[in-house]
Amino acid sequence: MTSRKLTAFYAATAFVAAVSFAAPASAQATRTWVSGVGDDVNPCSRTAPCKTFAGAISKTAAGGEINCLDPAGYGAVTITKSLTIDCHYTEGGALAGGNGIVVNALSTDVVTLRGLDIFGVSPPTHGVRIVAAGAVHIEDCVIRRFNSANSFGVSFQPTTTTSLFISNTTISQNGNGATGGGINVQPTGAGVGRVIINNSLIRGNANSGITVNTTGLGSAGVGIVVENSEVSGTQGGGLIFIAPAGSAGIGGQVTNSLIANNSAQGISADGSGATVRVGNTTITGNSFLGSQAVLITNLAKIQTYLDNRLDGNQVDGAFTSPSIPKK
Asked: HSE of 122 in the Cβ direction (CA atoms, 13 Å)?
């Protein structure tokens, strides 16, 4: 081989090697890691972790997972793809002014938030704000102190058909005065909400514990189940369902739960599109502000399976008659 050909051969070999070496640097990993002593210039591997969720998300493949190596505050993040953030076995903090975690993904994407302490700092907006996704799972989390006006621990306002699952989670000290609160379920545009809240504590929030509102919504509406949970200590109402005539309907189910010590109503339903069924639930210590613990207005329905305990409130109110016989 001539010297000219050898030179060309070595140059080509060096180019191929350089391309091969560079490719992995831009690849996204299925699992990435964050640490309080990490750095976002790192590849987010276990031995070279990133410092924030926002730094790790760009290096995590769709459908992948971000894990926490040690207790730390990992900051706010916007999620735009299928992703799990799991800090179940350590303190995965997200101290945030503004929104803590925003989910704005595709209608087929699934997002899981597990083992997080999402804490609002001045001025906070919402703990978890959900705009669009196929499903969002919030598991074993604490969401607290998003206490500006109109702030919610979880703001669920999807523009698509979206399912929300909340389990083993505490949502407290959110909202301010007569605004905001624990959880707001209010789809917009063509949004449809399917919500299950299980084994969770909605405690000490401002205007409401859980609000479901379909005012002006023309889509399929909201189906919500609250089970094995506590809604207590709000400055306003515990569970509020609003579905005026002409708007999309609400189908609600509350079972095996405690609704207690809310300053206004325990459960209220307003509008002919709202139907709520209640079973094996204790409603007590509510309505300090003089409203009924079970309050029904504008042809709404709050039906009982005849196995609830509605007493000990300043004004008990009553379920819709006829009730649903217990089978």
From this structure: 0
The number of distinct structural domains making up the chain is: 1
- Report the chain's terminal Cα–Cα distance, integer Å: 91
pTM for this structure? 0.91
- The DSSP code for 139 is E
Residue keyed to tokens 């999807």: 158
Of residues 147, 142, 102, 141, the one with CA closest to residue 122: 147
Which residue is associated with the tokens 């300053």?
263
pLDDT band at residue 18 under the 50/70/90 scheme: very low
Residue 280 has pLDDT above 70, yes or no: yes
Domain membership flag for residue 231: yes
Residue 17 confidence (pLDDT) above 50: no
In a domain, 276, yes or no: yes
Of 278, 326, 70, 151, the C-alpha closest to 317 is 278
**How do beta strands 267-270 and 192-198 pair?**
unpaired
Amino acid in the structure at residue 317: G
- Please state, for a pLDDT cut of 90, what percent of the chain lies above it: 85
Side-chain-side CA neighbours of residue 318 (13 Å): 4
Residue 218's pLDDT is what?
A: 87
In a domain, residue 290? The reply is yes
Cis peptide before 123 (omega within 30 of 0): yes
Cross-strand bridge partners of residue 255: 227, 279
Domain carrying residue 254: 207-327
Residue 14 lies in a domain: no
Summarize pLDDT for 92-147 with one digit per residue, the tens.
999 788 999 999 999 999 999 999 999 999 899 999 999 999 999 999 999 999 99
